Amino acid sequence: MTEGEANDMAKGIDGANRTGNRDDDALGFAARSALPGPEAGMATVIDALDDPCLLVDAAGIVAHLNGTALKRYPGIRPGDPLVFRLRQTDVNDALARVVAEARPETVEWQEKVPTDRWFEAHLAPIGGGEGRTRFVLLRIEDLTETRRVERMRADFVANASHELRTPLAAVIGFLETLQGPARNDETVRDRFLAIMAEQAGRMKRLIDDLLSLSRLEMRAHVRPEATVDLCEILSHVVDLVTPAASGAGVAIEVAGCSAPRLVRGDREELVQVFTNLAENAVKYGAGGGRVEISVFDEAGDDRHLAVSVRDHGQGIDPVHLPRLTERFYRAHTEKAGSTRGTGLGLAIVKHIVSRHGGRLTIESVPGEGSTFTVRLDRPTAPKARIEKKQ
Fold it and tell me: For domain 144-218, which CATH number applies: 1.10.3720.10, 1.10.287.130, 3.40.640.10, 3.80.30.20?
């Protein structure tokens, strides 16, 4: 296509746009009407694609774009020079090479404003015979979610490896000592075996939590349908946590359970949620002497029940609150000492609550304690089956 033909096409498209509506249909009709002969059918194919797609002629003028591209780049219209609207040097340079060499090319770039986003442009020449390129099909793929998942996976593997390596190194070191200098020292052997058992237990808890997270992620899209009694679950949780609470001098109080309180959920998963929250409250709020677990209705909300777990301990610095549910993130490393957990407990809580369609909120004031509140759906069916402990 000559430069004069490109200019005539641009004028025709611009005139159609001025006389018609500016919505997607008008833009599509204007672009298709300007495409000559066989190329007119390409617009229909481009419109059917989910990714943002643009058809650009050899002079760099946008001949057609689909609705997805229009939403992603609202400033681009048929007839516009691409270089003026898509200000990505790498993409525009690649477009020139594809036109000149008639070979497809892929370009990746990152945008940092307003947030980090990654994109990949696929450029394919559409020939006009004799090795010439009449048009270039530009398809833009959003890689942001893929990059974030890759980063999360890399961070997760690194953190999990670190968490397993530390106790494993301790176990190996004590084994080597017992096989060598301390082989016949009963006192040292008993002490080392106790430490090794503790470290092995730590690794087991980490592996169990990793498996729990994996199972939860596999079922994240499946909402539980059974109906369970929150009060029965909390009674069971108190039984599980009482030995540790008694050892720490902490009393556990439950309020709001004078009658069954029903929600839709998976019993075992909800036991895991409130056991994690209660154990954390005992561990990090021991200085307050008591943990309060309350079931209550929130004003104006008849669709949900709320359960709060409150301690009266040291509280959490507000800077940590947004990251508490991240995997391996710890806000109490100096407090927990040798009894610290795997760093996955609140991540598991968040995944379970999300699978239930619920919501987890965290409030804390340094020096006054912390409150973790879980909101869950009430049953929708009046005669829903109640799932109880077998």
Answer: 1.10.287.130
